[in-house]
Amino acid sequence: MPLPKLNPAQIQRVIQRVADYIERQRQTYRPIAVALDPNKLAAMRPFFPASTLETARLAVLGGNRVANPPFYGELVRMGFEAGSLPNFALMAAITFVDTVVSHEPFTDSVLFHELVHVVQYQKLGLIEFAAKYVRGFLDGGSCVIPLEMNAYELEARFAAGPANSFLVADEVQKWIDAGKF
């Protein structure tokens, strides 16, 4: 089923709700999150700026799940099918600016993907990240959000092995410069 068409005021309201949710979740999980351990730092160091690795924090939820945003009911009333909205409880991990929350122990692959989002937040800022995420979702649903496509593409390159090292910040900037987000 196609997603409903929202007017510009509705889109702006959704973007603001998403940004507010992200910031509230960051504030909730940041106090229990920890720095990357030495093994994770070593695995990520060739790809990420030191500043990203120093500021990122990780929280693994033992048995708990991140709740879906409280504004989902409003989206359903706007015409969205509940099943078309991202289900946070089913995600392996979620990044809230510089705080990554996982429902399971971090693998290097999941951590890499989420750190790409940290870099995206650093380069775009919270409001612009939220705007690009919402607009990407509205343009094609969860499967074709450009921010996610970027993270999955870079994650695949990371999985190809250390001989293929690259700088994530440079790759994200290339997408920004090319208007791909």
In short:
With 181 residues, this protein is mainly α.
Overview of this structure, please?
It is a single chain. This protein is mainly α. Helix content is 54%, strand content 7%. The protein has helices at 8-29, 38-44, 50-55, 72-77, 108-124, 126-140, 146-159, 168-177, and strands spanning 57-60, 93-96, 99-102. α1 (8-29) packs across α6 (126-140), α5 (108-124) packs across α7 (146-159) and α5 (108-124) packs across α8 (168-177). The model has no long low-confidence stretch (mean pLDDT 94).
The percent range for helix content is 40-55%
Percent in strands:
5-15%
Radius of gyration, CA atoms, in whole angstroms: 16 Å
Biggest beta sheet attributes: 3 strands, mixed
Low-confidence stretches: none
What coarse outline follows from CA principal-axis ratios?
globular
Report, as a whole number of angstroms, the end-to-end distance.
Answer: 24 Å
Question: How many DSSP helices?
Answer: 8
Strand order of the largest sheet: 1-3-2
Mean pLDDT: 94
What topology does this entry show?
Layout: H1 8-29, H2 38-44, H3 50-55, E1 57-60, H4 72-77, E2 93-96, E3 99-102, H5 108-124, H6 126-140, H7 146-159, H8 168-177
Parallel strand pairs: 1-3
Antiparallel strand pairs: 2-3
Helix pairs in contact: 1-6, 5-6, 5-7, 5-8
